[in-house]
Amino acid sequence: MYYIGIDLGTSAVKLLLMNEEGQVKNVTSLEYPLYFPHSGWSEQNPADWWEAVQKGIKVLIKDIDSKEVKGMSFGGQMHGLVVLDENDEVIRPAILWNDNRTAKQSDYLNEVIGKAKLSECTANISFAGFTAPKILWMKEEEPENFARIKKIMLPKDYIAYKLTGVHCTDVSDASGMLLFDVKNKCWSKEMMEICDVKEEQLAQIFESYEKVGTVLPKWRLVLDYLKM
Questions:
Q1: Which end of the chain has the smaller Cβ count within 10 Å, N or C?
Q2: Residue 217 has what DSSP assignment?
Q3: Residue 65: its pLDDT value, please?
Q4: What is the mean pLDDT of the chain?
């Protein structure tokens, strides 16, 4: 049996193929572009991630029977904002962890809402790269896009969603969004109200070791397809 690990980094996706004994059998890495449309902004196109992941899987499994791949696991860049509409289409380019456009919104959270309140709700304070101030930025600067949001997710979780149809994240990454009640391991009602988001827009939360789902029927033959 084999397992695939996918690490969706800021400049490239790294993939490895491991057997059931933990031996690494193949590795590959594929780069994708970063976009800086304005000073301090940092964005990527989620379609570039998805294309790179598919190409990477093709490289990994070229010498094995793809039916022997029994599982995939995902890691990646934290704090980024990916938003989908009701048709599961990406609304705007992903805003990355190293994007600094949200200084105003981050200051609002720290100084008006207050660091004590943030810490009580999320065990954290706001930084410009976190997800919550990005959501507030969209609400203020792109209200038409904000109104279209059906799903909010992190970069690696977009890839998991593409493959499984499950809107999911793990506890560790959720804790870096400034929306997560770390103590009670659930989305913070106070932070959702502050950011004007609904719980159904946010992901199901899993521990990192838990199975989140299975490959969608339309992708069940994806590994065989990618070998062609």
A1: C
A2: G
A3: 82
A4: 93
Euclidean distance between CA atoms 161 and 172, whole angstroms: 18
**CATH assignment of the domain containing 82:** 3.30.420.40
Q: Which residues touch 45 (CB under 8 Å, ≥6 apart)?
A: 32, 33, 35, 90, 93, 94
Q: Residue 185: count other Cβ atoms within 10 Å of its Cβ.
A: 12
CB atoms within 10 A of CB 207: 9
pLDDT, tens only, 66-107: 788 889 999 999 999 999 999 999 999 999 999 999 999 999
28 forms beta bridges with 15
**Residue 150 in contact with residue 86, Cβ under 8 Å?**
yes
Tell me which residue range forms the domain holding 11. Answer: 2-227
- Residue partners of 129: CB distance under 8 A and separation at least 6: 79, 96, 97, 98, 99, 100, 102
DSSP assignment string, 65-122 = -GGGEEEEEEEE--S-BEEE-TTS-B-SPEEPTT--TTHHHHHIIIIIIIHHHHHHHH
Q: Within 13 A of 201's CA, how many CA atoms are on the CB side?
A: 21
| Beta strands 24-31; 12-19: pairing state | antiparallel
Q: Which two tokens stand for residue 201?
A: 């827009």
Q: How many domains does the chain have?
A: 1
Taking residue 3's Cβ as centre, other Cβ atoms within 10 Å add up to 17
Rg (CA), the chain: 18
Amino acid (one-letter) located at 122? T
